[in-house]
Structure formats: structure tokens, C-alpha cells
Amino acid sequence: MSVEHVDVLIVGAGLSGVGAACHLQKYCPATTFTILEGREAIGGTWDLFRYPGIRSDSDMSTLGYSFRPWDRAKSIAGGAEIRSYVADTAAEHGVDRHIRFGHQVIDANWSSDDARWTVRARRASDGEEVEITCSFLFSCTGYYDYEQGFTPDFHGIDRFSGQVVHPQLWPEDLDYAGKRVLVIGSGATAVTLVPAMAETAGHVTMLQRSPTYLVSRPGTDPFAVRMRRSVPGSLANPLVRWKSIATNFYTYQKARRAPERTKALLRNGVEMQLPDGYDIDTHFTPRYNPWDQRLCLVPDGDFFTAVREGRASVVTDHIHAISDTGIALRSGDFLEADVIVTATGLNMLAVGGIHLTVDGTKVNIPKAVAYKGMMLSEVPNFAFTIGYINSSWTLRAELVARYVCHLLNHMRRRGLRTCMPLHPKTAGRAPLFNLTSGYAQRGDAVMPKQGGAAPWRMHHNFLREWLFTLRRTKVHDSGVRFS
User: Fold this and answer.
1) Is residue 195 within 8 Å of 305, Cβ to Cβ?
2) Sequential DSSP letters for 381-419
3) Which class for 256: exposed (0-12), middle (13-18), buried (19 or more C-beta within 10 A)?
4) Distance between terminal CA atoms of the chain?
């Protein structure tokens, strides 16, 4: 029986996958491609997460695609709006016709003799396994494990008489109106959940072991509103996008170069949002420098409003044990609860959990080194997309997609069949994500590494990659071999 073949197989129909498909259509019009999506809908992360208040943590002028600018009023958008935006983009560009839903990719095997991948996927509709071959495999699955989030081993959690919920597996029928809700965690998910749930809950308490830096900003960008009112969209949209890029670049660089000054500015911002005498040192002063972990965005100060109005509160302590009615703290205090939300983080998963083999040898992804933060050493004709830790995911996803198109066109023009990054000879390995966050530390065990210098170093710097590394660069260098 013949096996279907395409030039490029994209795995994942989220922001990255849909964007990659649109780029292929524009820059590689003769290239055939198919998208395999394990879920039954477009959207990826934005289809998976359905917890209250789910929203972007980057402004939509940069989280949206450059080729289809976000022109809605809100610059910080909700999950449903983003999901709709991705689906509309796929339909508008016709790439939705290339998506096969309910196809969970299991493994991919490269044959050097045939210069192609054989990809095996399980079809959700009947459980059958299907095969498809491709000349180039492009993983656009992100780096989160979609099956389960991270929950620490809380002593006594099985004794709790109420509901225990992880944000990644949010039940549609959860009724918390008028109830005491306890959110464990202090990251972006917890900071999003607290004000959203506080609208109807009796009271919401955020229990954290240690604080996170919070920064409040308007949910609607005044600059974007002015530009779109005064100049044509063809000019306004690039101006808004590049203003956001420049602002994010400047504030990040300033924070890393002057951490004490940045700490003071962030503290002043929190003080302005809370009542006089609030214990900011305990609850809102982290022990690390800004951007050692990601900053948490608070659109329109909604989190602080909930705390200020008494609908939510923050407790900084350690869990001693969980009983049938709540949580006993190490300090001796006890927090009663009807619902416990474990906003304790996510598990990282490299390339969507696909098992890769090259000529029968299993690829050890944690031992592999990432070439330009987008290909794996000793793995031919393969690319993956990951975003920045300090800026919008889509900014880098588009750079990677454009680079892949450039690479494919280069190979087609010269009659080349394979492109394989070599294993760097120089010493020095580092995590891809230079963060102290729990998910990043845990993820180091499953993610590829980066090397000590170009082209093996991934700089979380859009302007640098846009100018020198990914957008305007030759595909031939010492790190890659063509044949």
C-alpha cells in the first residue's frame, strides 16, 4: 500500500503551526505540506487552556502575526479572542484545508538512504495508526506537556473534601460562586485566576511560597488607539508593532543592566495599587532580580483591584498539610477552602513528545544541541519552534518560519536533499531558557541545550536575531552540513 508523501509536515495547529503554514504558502508556493494536529480544533495552547480569565501575557501587536495585524481594541486579549484570531487566520489564508485534526504524532524515523522522514500518528476517531512521509519535519508543538500539568506532592491532598482543580484541566461545570477558593501559586496563571474568580467567588486567597514581580499596564494601548484613528492601517499597524518591540527591548535591557533601579520602579508600581501600610515586603518583593523569572502582567491592575476591594487576599507561607476543610500552614495558621486550585506550573515536553530516530538510532533530545535555537544537532531536515522568554512567542515563531522557508528554497535551487546541523566541537552547554522558574529548571532534563557561541547560542533578543541570526543570514555556516 502506498504511503502519502509531502514536502513539509508541520506538527501542531496553534499560533506557530498556522503561521508556519502561511509562510510556506507565501515564500515556498511549490512546496506541498500537511499539518497534523492532535486535538480536534485550531489554537494549540489557546484551545487547551480554558480556565477563568485566560489571556495573553504579551501585547497582541506582537503576539499577532505581522502578515495579519491585530486591529482590535484590546492589546491584552482573552483566550477565546486569540483562539478565534488563529482560526480566522487559517481560514483566510486557506491553510485550514491542510489540517488533519485528531492525529497525534507518535514517532518519526529518518532514513538517510531515502532522505525522508516516516511519521507515524494515531488517529483519534478510531485509534488506528497512519503513516505519512515527508522530506522536512517541522515541529510547532510548543514546549508544554498537554496531557498533564505539574502538581507537587502535597501531603494530605487526597483528604480534602472539596474540589481540587489544576488550571490545565479545568472542568467546564465547576461552580465556585460564593465559595472560598484557595489558589496555590504565584505565577502568571495564579495572577490571572485570582481576579477572574473573585468576581463571583465568596473570597479568593492566593497562597504563595514566595512573591513574583507584578507589573500593571493598560489592557488597551493608548498609542495604538491614536495611531489607528489618525493614520491608515498599513502605516499604523507597523508603527504599533515596532513601538511595542522597542519598548519591550528597552525595558528588558534596562532591567538586566540596572536591577536595583528596576526593583524600585516595580515596587513603586505595586505601592500605587494597594492601600497604605500593606505588607509589600512580604507579599510582593521577590528574592531574585527582575527577569530571572518572567514578570507577571496585570492588565488594568485587575489583580490589585480585587485585593484592594477585599474580594481577594495574598498569603505568603509554606504548606504543612492539607486536611478535609483546608490547608494548615507552617506558620501555624489555617486556611479554610471549598475549592483548591493548584496553579503550580506546567511540565515541559520537547517537540511534542515525538520519539525521533535517525537511521535506527534514537535521538537523545536532552543531549542534543540546538542550532540557532531551532534545529537539533545530528538530526537532518528537522526544525522546531520555541519563543522568547522576554518577549512575544510569535515574534520568534515568525523568524523561525521565515528561516525554514529560506532554507528550503536554498536546498531546492541547489538540488540538495539534506541539511543537518553538526554537533559543536566547542565545550560549554547551557539551558535554552536562562530562568530560575520551576518549570524551566524541571524542563532542563527534557529540553535540548545550547552551546557557548554562535550558531549554537540562542539569544533571547528579537532585534539581534532579526538583524543577524535568523532573518538576514546565510544558511551556509560552519554549524551545518548539506548533501
Assistant:
1) yes
2) TEEE----SSS-HHHHHHHHHHHHHHHHHHHHHHT---E
3) middle
4) 30
Q: Which residues touch 467 (CB under 8 Å, ≥6 apart)?
A: none
> How much is the pLDDT for 426?
83
Angle at 289 between CA 77 and CA 145, to 5 degrees: 50
| Residue 440 CB partners (closer than 8 Å, separation 6+) | 348, 389, 431, 433
Pairing type for strands 312-316 and 203-208 reads parallel
Q: Which of 88, 121, 171, 85 is nearest to 9 (CA)?
A: 121
DSSP state of 360: T
Helix then strand then coil, in percent of the chain rounded to 5, is 35, 25, 45
- Cα–Cα distances in angstroms (integers) from residue 240 to residues 225, 226, 234, 248, 339, in the given order: 9, 10, 11, 12, 41
In 160-255, the DSSP E strands lie at 163-165, 180-184, 203-208, 214-217
Angle between helices 233-257 and 259-273 (to 10 degrees): 110
Handedness of CA 434, 437, 443, 444 (dihedral sign): positive
**Residue 6: alpha-carbon gap to chain centroid:** 28
Peptide bond into 232 cis (omega under 30): no
User: For residue 256, what is the enclosing H or E element?
Assistant: helix 233-257
CA dist 58 and 73 (Å) reads: 15
**Burial label, 359 (beta-carbon count in 10 A; 0-12, 13-18, 19+):** exposed
Determine the Cα–Cα distance for residues 238 and 233; give it in Å rounded to an integer: 8
In whole angstroms, give the CA distance from residue 99 to residue 9: 10
Q: Which residues of 425-436 are buried (b: 16+ CB within 10 A; e: fewer)?
A: eeeeeebbbebe
What pLDDT digit, counting tens, does each position of 232-242 carry? 989 999 999 99
* DSSP-assigned letter for residue 467: I
Triad 66, 56, 52: Cα angle to 5°? 150
Q: Which of 366, 352, 379, 359 is nearest to 448 (CA)?
A: 366
Global pTM value: 0.96
Q: Are 204 and 183 in contact (CB under 8 A)?
A: yes
Helices 79-92, 15-27: axis angle to 10 degrees equals 20
Q: How far is CA 100 from CA 35, 42, 242, in A?
A: 6, 10, 35
Bridge pairing between strands 326-329 and 4-11? unpaired
Asked if pLDDT for residue 54 goes beyond 70, the answer is yes
* 58 Cα distance to chain centroid: 10
30 with 6: CB under 8 angstroms? no
Place of cell 480556565: 51
Q: How confident is the model at residue 477 (pLDDT cuts 50, 70, 90)?
A: confident
Q: What is the rounded distance in angstroms from the CA atom of residue 267 to the CA atom of residue 272?
A: 9
Task: Tell me what the mean pLDDT of segment 23-27 comes to.
Answer: 97
